Amino acid sequence: MACQNTVSGPPPEMIARPETGSVALNYIFSSCRNKLNASREIEPVELPNCHLIKGIEAGSEDIDILPNGLIFISSGLKYPGVKSFAPDKPGEILLMDLNEKNPKARELRISRGFDLASFNPHGISTYIDNDDSVYLFVVNHPHQKSTVEVFTFVEDDNSLKHLKTIKHDLLPSVNDILAVGPDRFYATNDHYFFDSVLMFLEMFLGLTWSNVVYYSPTEVKEVAGGFYSANGINMSPDEKYIYIADLLDHNIHIMEKHANWNLTQVKVLQLDTLIDNLFIDHSTGDIWAGCHPSGMKVFFYDPENPPGSEVLRIQNILSEKPLVSRVYAENGSVLQGSSVAAMHDGKLLIGTVFHKALYCEL
After folding, report:
1. Coiled-coil stretches, from where to where (predicted)?
2. Residue 14 domain-assigned (yes or no)
3. pLDDT band for position 12 (50/70/90)?
């Protein structure tokens, strides 16, 4: 998290004299509250034909869907400063099949040799190769570190075969991932540090050191920077543009992707909520965003006043006037801390950082 941009910072007159230090501190706290939407309340928006997905009780932080209707869900994230309802249970990858009449979430078995005890999955992304092999990229935080795990999906027995673990100095605090090949990806670092104390300091000082990195076996480089907290990342159906959510700046950056994998900014869509993961409906090009109405409630959890959930649908984002619709919103009585919304063939799944998941037929 980051709460105040040190490039702008408090007005100079606030910090010119020692006796104005308290004024500067109040300015920082005020800026921090604004970044977290501390006082924002939302009007509820209900959806018909919805029910909670049985078996998901400790999060469904990210969701990806294959063209054939198979769904991958990351569950059980333990993240510094965030609530967990299963702190001693390893994370898992769940599978659902939207072709079933009553889809259920089932845990995917992972091949031997992979350290399941420390599995702590975060963002995920799938890639289908020319031979129809399905690769699943998973951001993992074993022992409070950041790695990227690469698996192949074995559909015959609903299992994952672990291929490799990727670590790199330019991937210190990975949040989300976008696979663009069987061995290459874009990744967002939501912080410069992953140590919980340093993350808090980074947040308090408002350091805009969050970035996006491109990784391949032959080249690793930063391709975008200066974010408060780069979070969800995804790509347009024509693969020309990359979309990046900055959680604490309440916006989505639209970046043009070049042949050398570099990115250049095209525009920024400013919103009024904390945008987490982004999902692309490939049939329409629409962006579905899982959002946090109030970040304060997520990071300072109170069971008597839980964090709410919000889903946005963004149409024609490249146009001069994109259409932004609030599809779902509620105060946490049903779903706490929505982080992703994924649409497939009229069926919407809404996942959360640490809570349950909702399935709706629209």
Report:
1. none
2. no
3. very low
